Amino acid sequence: MKNLISVNNIELKDFEGIYKLFRDYKEKYKNGETKFTDLRGYSILLPFFESSTRTRTSFELAGKILGADTINISGSSSSVKKGETLYDTIKTLEAMNADFIVLRHYMSGAAHIVANKVKSRVINAGDGTHEHPSQALLDAFTILEKKGKIEGLKIVIVGDILHSRVARSDIKLLKMLGAEITICGPQTMLPRHLEVFEVDYVTTDVNEALKGKDVAIFLRIQLERQKKVFFSTLNEYSIRYGLNQERVNLLKEDAVIMHPGPVNRGIEMQSELVYGDRSLILDQVENGLFTRMAIYRYLLQN
Ligand code: CP
């Protein structure tokens, strides 16, 4: 596996290989080993054409911890602003002998196009509404840590499924690992062609969706991808779909709550639940670092 573009490229043996590296790095790091030489002499370029806090920081930090040289390239301060195409930008980065290109782009399919054009290893850090495979891996690892398994778990994903690259990647990976998946959201936020999602249940009723679930993943309402008309209904969304304590009580007693972040507090969930007892949101962030260390290492050795 040279590139990480889509969950479609991840076979069970890849998942298990990356998970093993994730656990090894996390254990060593927690025992005080915070510097490694596995990527010494390698360069990682991080062109991000959309905003990011978690993904960019953790990919950069992961590279630094492994001993690589890392360079951030922000879309807004790059020569793209002067009219340079994505193709020319990426060929320029490749000419600087980049070993890894970690790309976030607003266009679905951008990482796939780039991977076909360059010799560098390419990691998709989120492309439009298409995929976010490293998020799916860290979500799966976080669930595995807390629940000890994924097979047979009842997992519900609530929110803006239509615009969510996290939902697409999570659904594919968690289904591959044997979870039962329900998706829930207003009709306008559910994909029109549901058959491509291969989920087990689809509902617009959040109370029904949450009942008896082991894991509830809430998604950010993607205001930047919504039509203007949606703005007037945010409060209604919060009332009809937002997580509150009453709805938490519908889940299994030992259920966990997740969100890829950033959270729109008071919209997808009540503020006090964001870092509450059931929340794994900060575990997801922490595991993002070790997941990205593992991804670099796995792509190098395979
Ligand atoms: N989960 C996620 O992709 O967050 P960022 O946009 O902050 O990277």
Helix and strand layout, with pairings?
Blueprint (H helix, E strand, L loop, with lengths): L11 H19 L12 E6 L5 H12 L3 E6 L11 H10 L4 E6 L4 H6 L5 E7 L5 H15 L6 E5 L6 H12 L3 E5 L16 E3 L2 H5 L4 E4 L15 H8 L3 H4 L7 E3 L22 H21 L1
The site of phosphoric acid mono(formamide)ester (CP) has 10 residues, from helix 2.
What does this structure look like?
Helices cover 37% and strands 15% of the residues. It is an alpha/beta fold and 302 residues long. It has 2 domains: 143 residues, Rossmann fold (3-Layer(aba) Sandwich); 146 residues, Rossmann fold (3-Layer(aba) Sandwich), CATH 3.40.50. A 5-stranded parallel sheet has the order 7-6-5-8-9. Strands 2-1-3-4 form a 4-stranded parallel sheet, sandwiched between helices. The longest helix is centred in the last third of the chain and has 21 residues. The model has no long low-confidence stretch (mean pLDDT 93). Phosphoric acid mono(formamide)ester binds next to helix 2.
Unreliable spans are none
Strand portion, in percent?
Answer: 5-15%
CATH class of the largest domain: Alpha Beta
Ligand identities: phosphoric acid mono(formamide)ester
Q: What count of domains describes the coordinates?
A: 2
* Arrangement of strands in the largest sheet: 7-6-5-8-9
Helix vs. strand class: alpha/beta
| Quaternary structure of the protein | single chain
Q: Could you say what the CATH architecture of the largest domain is?
A: 3-Layer(aba) Sandwich
Instruction: Give the end-to-end Cα distance, rounded to a whole number of Å.
Output: 5 Å
The third-level CATH topology of the largest domain is: Rossmann fold
